[in-house]
Amino acid sequence: MHTAAPAPDAALDELYRDFASAHLTPLWTQRADLMPMTPAPAAAPFVWRWSDLYSIATRAGDLVPVGRGGERRAIALANPGLGGAPHATATLWAAIQYLGPKEVAPEHRHAQNAFRFVIDGEGVWTVVDGDPVAMRRGDFLLTPGWRFHGHHNESDRPMAWLDGLDIPFTQYIGAGFFEFGSDEVTDDTTPPVSRSERLWARPGLRPVTSPGATAASPIACYRWEHTDAALNDQLALEDEGHPGTAGPGHAALRFTNPTTGGDVMPTIRAEFHRLRPGAATRTRQDVGSQVFQVFDGAGAVRLGDTVRELHRGDLVAVPSWVPWSFQSEASGLDLFAFSDAPIMERLGFARTSHPEGA
Ligand code: 1HN
User: Which keywords does the record carry (predicted)?
Assistant: First the structure.
């Protein structure tokens, strides 16, 4: 009979208990999760139907007031892989926001960068640091971090649009600040064009007296008539034998900051893609995540091995490294897209590959 040292198993059990009580975790039990061979995001590839979103937003419009406290009647896409968090992907928030006739969403500001993309309607002005900006179908509007902003609907009809923000990223890194502003909007005039656009939104021209590079674009709104004309000309030039397209039958534009030529905001890239009837994008996979919204037409998206049909307004979340491509039907397909690519590029994580030699 002897009093042996604890059996190895018992000693090991004790070691693991002590890890836990000291708030420590050994790498050798976790390595494959912490360092997968290729990105293994928790978020799932997912499609939300506009018909579901719009009807549920309408019901919220009837039942839930908009005002101080909640601030916005915005209904976030909650990716099914993210445990109920209001996150479309690991880094991006996307929501449908609904503002009824004559309603006002009060002013506030936050460190998070935001944009709006208008799928339908008009009659709302967003007031960004005192500058009223009209919102109309196809327009892409910026509210970069720490600018006061509120919205007011001057029309007799409700209006709904897409909001995109870098909320999940900002939350994860602990960088969020928030401040209330005026309960009404500070300027309730309704000019067709904002002061920001009059200063900054003329192609290839910038005011000389303004500061140099700014982290976010000074253009408050990128108007649909410009986006549409640029896409039409890309495809027309392809027909004329002078291609500037992203691929056959695939016109693509990136919204840019005129002071840098780079992305519109430090954390968010925004693009617009137009596929001719029957055209498809090349299959690719990217580090970083993105969200697409069908602006017009119909088609399908392939996400990994799954193909989903798409119609006007539908939203698609593409997590990091999921292979994706779009195909257009006879109607053609117009897609608005936003992503966290500026973060990935700036931090040196960006990679793109074309699987199956696609
Ligand atoms: C916000 O300020 C807006 O200004 C939309 O319209 C969505 C989600 C969370 C926090 C602030 C807006 C938001 C938001």
Answer: Dioxygenase, Oxidoreductase
**Alpha carbons 303 and 281: distance in angstroms, whole number:** 13
Number of domains present in the structure of the chain: 1
H or E stretch including 196?
Answer: helix 195-200
Residue 10: inside a domain: no
Q: What is the pTM of this model?
A: 0.95
**Burial degree of 20 (CB within 10 A; 0-12, 13-18, 19+):** exposed
If 0-12 CB within 10 Å is exposed, 13-18 middle and 19+ buried, where does residue 9 land? exposed
Report the CATH number at residue 266: 2.60.120.10
pLDDT tens by residue, 83-130: 999 999 999 999 999 999 999 999 999 999 999 999 999 999 999 999
Residue among 72, 75, 153, 169 to mutate when testing ligand 1 (max atoms within 8 A of CB):
72
CA of 303 to the centre of ligand 1 (A): 29
Distance 151 CA to ligand 1 centre (A): 11
Atom 14 in ligand 1: which residue has the minimum CA distance?
A: 72
> Which atom in ligand 1 lies closest to the alpha carbon of residue 76?
8
Distance between Cα 74 and ligand 1 center (Å): 7
Q: Structural domain of residue 174, as residue ranges?
A: 46-203+217-353
Q: Cα of 170 to ligand 1 centre, how many Å?
A: 13
* Beta-strand runs (E) in the chain: 46-48, 74-76, 93-99, 104-110, 114-117, 122-128, 131-136, 140-143, 149-153, 159-165, 178-180, 221-222, 250-254, 269-275, 285-286, 290-303, 306-310, 315-318, 324-339, 352-353
Backbone angles phi, psi at 171, to 5 degrees: -65, -45
Pairing status of strand 306-310 against strand 290-303: antiparallel
15 part of a folded domain: no
According to the model, what pLDDT value does residue 2 have? 59
pLDDT in tens, 27-67: 999 988 999 999 999 999 999 999 999 999 999 999 999 98
Atom of ligand 1 nearest to the CA of 108: 2
State phi, psi for 15 to the nearest 5 degrees. Answer: -60, -45
Token pair listed for 322:
């999921």
Please check whether residue 211 lies inside any domain of the structure. no
